[in-house]
């Protein structure tokens, strides 16, 4: 067998495969990666409630930056699925101490990191991001989930915004994305009134792609969607994400939102409300208010 023929066979085998290098370990250990070919599962574990604190913020940003093609020696995964190790909590809100006025430089940096995460979810067109939600997703966790490409709900899923209870609002793009998925009036109802919504109802509104009444059905459905996407050519994936990007809210609207959030956060009544929330939530641990955060925000107003 000639060297030229052998080399041709080797090149053919390399180009027909799709090797994806696994991501590096997350710096703070809040994310665990399960790569399987061109699909990677990301398991969130930040006890006790998967709080979106600085550790999780930095781990999420580090992972998303590792998916940038220019940062890699191999192609990124075609599909990334986020799920949780905690059966009660999927992705929760920001550490509210990080928005407690005054907004010191480290708090401003945390906000910038959070916004960078949302931008990567929107702009990394080589990868489809799927949320496999079978727990609570409130506040920032809900906003991040809404900016993934698809969302599927299991029997424990519940979602909602609670920021208006602090006298601020969801400043990370979540309210705009929700309005496009449902409608303006429905988004205003759930944002302004801070109401919790369960998985079946949210799916009927378009908050989720679909609802599944067992964990097994949820996992099977998400795996099937991911497997089918993973089989198809990379170019089609890129073109579809780019082609549908016109439906994302304009960047200038998102930038205006975060600027207004900072203005509202500096209001005189915000610190007292955050202090009361920290007391009722036992410093953001498993508690009645964290199990049903949006609905319980009225408890801050005796």
Describe what you observe in this structure.
The structure is a single chain. With 302 residues, the chain is of the alpha/beta class. Helices cover 46% and strands 14% of the residues. It contains 13 helices and ten strands. It has helices at residues 3-16, 54-66, 105-123, 140-146, 174-181, 184-192, 199-205, 215-231, 234-244, 251-265, 270-280, 288-291, 293-296, and strands at residues 31-36, 39-44, 79-84, 89-91, 128-133, 136-138, 150-153, 158-160, 197-198, 210-211. The chain has a six-stranded mixed β-sheet with strand order 1-2-3-5-7-10, sandwiched between helices. A four-stranded mixed β-sheet has the order 4-6-8-9. Helix 2 (54-66) runs parallel beside helix 3, helix 4 (140-146) packs across helix 5 and helix 5 (174-181) crosses helix 6 (184-192). The radius of gyration is 20 Å and the shape is globular. The protein starts with a helix and ends in a 6-residue tail after the last helix.
């Amino acid at each position: 067998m000639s060297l030229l023929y052998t080399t041709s066979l080797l090149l053919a085998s390399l180009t027909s495969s799709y090797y994806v290098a696994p991501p590096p370990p997350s710096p703070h250990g809040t994310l665990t990666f399960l790569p399987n070919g061109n699909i990677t599962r990301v398991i969130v574990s930040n006890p006790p409630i998967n709080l979106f604190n600085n550790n999780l913020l930095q781990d999420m940003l580090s992972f998303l930056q590792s998916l940038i093609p220019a940062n890699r020696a191999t192609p990124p995964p075609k599909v990334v699925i986020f799920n949780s190790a905690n059966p009660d909590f999927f992705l929760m809100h920001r550490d509210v101490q990080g928005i407690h006025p005054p907004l010191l430089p480290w708090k401003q940096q945390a906000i910038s990191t959070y916004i960078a995460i949302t931008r990567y979810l929107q702009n990394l067109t080589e990868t489809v991001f799927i949320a496999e939600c079978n727990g609570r997703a409130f506040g920032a966790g809900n906003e991040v989930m809404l900016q993934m490409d698809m969302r599927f709900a299991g029997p424990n899923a519940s979602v909602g915004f609670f920021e208006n209870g602090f006298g601020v609002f969801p400043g990370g793009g979540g309210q705009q994305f929700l309005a496009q998925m449902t409608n303006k009036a429905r988004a205003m109802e759930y944002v302004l009134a801070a109401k919790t919504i369960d998985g079946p109802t949210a799916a009927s509104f378009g908050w989720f792609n679909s609802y599944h009444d067992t964990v097994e059905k949820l996992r099977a459905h998400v795996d099937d969607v991911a497997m089918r996407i993973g089989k198809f050519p990379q170019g089609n994936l890129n073109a579809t994400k780019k082609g549908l990007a016109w439906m994302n809210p304009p960047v200038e609207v998102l930038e205006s939102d975060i600027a207004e959030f900072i203005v509202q956060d500096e209001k005189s009544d915000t610190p007292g409300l955050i202090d009361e929330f920290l007391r009722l939530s036992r410093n953001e641990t498993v508690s009645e208010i964290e199990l049903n955060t949006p609905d319980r925000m009225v408890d801050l107003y005796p």
